[in-house]
Write a structure and sequence with these properties.
By secondary structure, this protein is α+β, with helices and mostly antiparallel strands. 56% of the residues lie in helices and 19% in strands.
Length: 404
C-alpha cells in the first residue's frame, strides 16, 4: 500500500520528478565514466610499462635490482635456464644484457640504457616492435641498432646512418661498437624513448667483453593471473644467489598509484553523494510543503507518523533507483563504444606521453564501480529524504489542514 501511494505521489508532479531523475542520472554517468576512465588510464600506464620493458617476472643475480651494473649480471646462466625450462612451460621467456652507456653521432651524444636482446624471443615478451615507425625491428644481424625518433632527432641521424655506442666493460675499460640504424621506434612514453636503444645480444656481449653473460631473464606467463604462482615456483627451484621479481616489485610506484586510487575514489563518491543529498532535500522539502494539507488529512484520519515517514523515504528510493537505472543505461551506451575504440586525446599527446599513457585511453569498468554506484546513489537519495520526512511528521494535523 505504501509503495503504491509513493508511486502515485511521484507521478503527481511529473516535471519535478523528471528533473530529479535526470539530475541523479547525470550524477551516475559522471561517477561511472570518471571511474572507468581513471582506472583505464592507470591500468594502461602499468600495462604499457610491463609490455615495453619490465615484463611480468624477471630473474636476476641477487643484488642486481639494487645495483644494475654489469658486474652484477649472471655469469653462469645454466642453473637459470634449467629451472626456466621446467617451470615455464606455459610462459614466454627472453633474456637481455643491459648496461648504461653513451650513443654518439658526429653531431651529438646521449646517455642511454643499451639493451642487448634476442630479437625473436624479445618480440614475444615486449611490445617495442609494435611501435616501429621507420625501418624494421632487429633481425639479429651483428652491428644493427634501433633507436627512438626522439634520440634520432637529438643525434641528427636517420635510417641507415651509423652511430657509436660506448659503455664500461667488466675490467673498467671502455668498449665501443659502430652500429647502423635499421629502425626507429616511438612508444607511448617519451621518457622511455629518450633512454633506450636496442642491439642484438651478440653485439652487446662482444662490445662489453662479456661472453655468455645475461643481466636478466624475462618471463611472461600466458595467463597473467598466475604471475605470483609462477614467480614463487621459479624462486623455490632456483639455487641461492638469484632474485625473482614480479612487476609489482619492479614498478612499485605504478602499483601503489592503483592502490591509492582505490582508496581516494571514495572521496569522489562522497562528493557526488553529498551533492545528490542536497538536491533530494530541496526537492522533497518542496514536495512536503506543497502537500501539507494532504499530510494533515492523513494524520487526522489516523495514519501513523511512521507510515508517512516511510512513504516519503519510499518516494525518494524510487526516484533514486529509477535515476540510477537511467544513468547506468546511458553510461553503458557511452562506455561500450569507448572501450573498443578508445578515447583519442591526441591534442594532449605530449602531456600523456610524459606520464607513459599514450594518446588513446581505453576505459575499464570495474565491477566494484557498478556495485558502489548501485548502492551509494539510492542510499543517498533515501538519506536526503530523511529531513523532509521529519518535517512532515512534525506537522500538527489541525494547522496542516488549514494550510490549504
Amino acid at each position: 500500500m505504501i509503495g503504491k501511494i509513493a508511486w502515485r505521489n511521484i507521478l503527481r508532479n511529473k516535471r519535478r520528478s523528471l528533473i530529479l531523475i535526470v539530475s541523479i542520472a547525470i550524477g551516475v554517468v559522471a561517477m561511472v565514466l570518471t571511474d572507468a576512465v581513471s582506472i583505464g588510464m592507470m591500468r594502461q600506464m602499468l600495462t604499457n610499462q610491463i609490455g615495453a620493458d619490465a615484463g611480468y617476472i624477471q630473474v636476476h643475480k641477487k643484488g642486481y635490482q639494487a645495483d644494475p651494473a654489469l658486474k652484477n649480471s649472471i655469469a653462469d646462466t645454466a642453473p637459470v635456464r634449467s629451472v626456466l625450462s621446467t617451470d615455464t612451460a606455459s610462459c614466454e621467456v627472453s633474456e637481455r644484457l643491459r648496461t648504461f652507456g653513451l650513443v654518439s653521432s658526429a653531431y651529438n651524444s646521449s646517455g642511454v640504457s643499451i639493451v642487448g636482446i634476442l630479437p625473436q624471443k624479445e618480440r614475444k615478451v615486449t611490445t617495442v616492435h609494435n611501435y616501429m615507425v621507420e625501418g624494421t625491428y632487429l633481425s639479429g644481424n651483428p652491428g644493427d641498432i634501433i633507436i627512438s625518433t626522439a634520440t634520432a632527432e637529438k643525434l641528427r641521424v636517420g635510417l641507415g646512418d651509423k652511430v657509436v655506442i660506448m659503455a664500461s666493460r667488466l675490467d673498467g675499460s671502455v668498449g665501443s661498437e659502430a652500429c647502423r640504424i635499421v629502425g626507429l621506434f616511438e612508444t607511448f612514453d617519451s621518457g622511455f624513448d629518450q633512454t633506450h636503444v636496442y642491439i642484438p645480444m651478440q653485439t652487446a656481449q662482444q662490445m662489453l667483453d662479456a661472453p655468455g653473460r645475461v643481466s636478466e631473464f624475462v618471463v611472461n606467463p600466458t595467463d597473467t593471473k598466475r604471475t605470483e604462482t609462477v614467480a614463487a615456483q621459479i624462486e623455490s627451484d632456483l639455487p641461492a644467489g638469484f632474485e625473482v621479481l614480479t612487476y609489482k616489485q619492479m614498478l612499485p610506484i605504478l602499483v601503489m598509484q592503483l592502490q591509492l586510487y582505490d582508496q581516494t575514489i571514495y572521496i569522489f563518491y562522497a562528493i557526488i553523494a553529498i551533492a545528490l543529498i542536497f538536491g533530494i532535500v530541496n526537492t522533497m522539502l518542496m514536495a512536503v510543503m506543497e502537500r501539507t494539507h494532504e499530510f494533515g488529512v492523513d494524520m487526522a484520519i489516523g495514519m501513523a507518523n511512521r507510515r508517512i515517514f516511510t512513504m516519503i523515504l519510499t518516494e525518494a528510493l524510487y526516484l533514486g533507483v529509477i535515476g540510477t537505472a537511467a544513468g547506468l543505461v546511458v553510461s553503458f551506451a557511452i562506455f561500450i563504444p569507448l572501450s573498443h575504440s578508445g578515447w583519442n586525446l591526441a591534442m594532449f599527446s605530449e602531456s600523456l606521453k610524459s606520464v607513459g599513457v599514450g594518446t588513446t585511453i581505453y576505459p575499464v569498468l570495474a565491477a566494484s564501480s557498478l556495485i558502489n554506484t548501485i548502492l551509494i546513489i539510492p542510499l543517498s537519495a533515501v538519506i536526503g529524504a530523511v529531513y523532509p520526512a521529519l518535517r512532515a511528521i512534525k506537522l500538527q494535523p489541525v494547522e496542516a489542514i488549514r494550510a490549504s
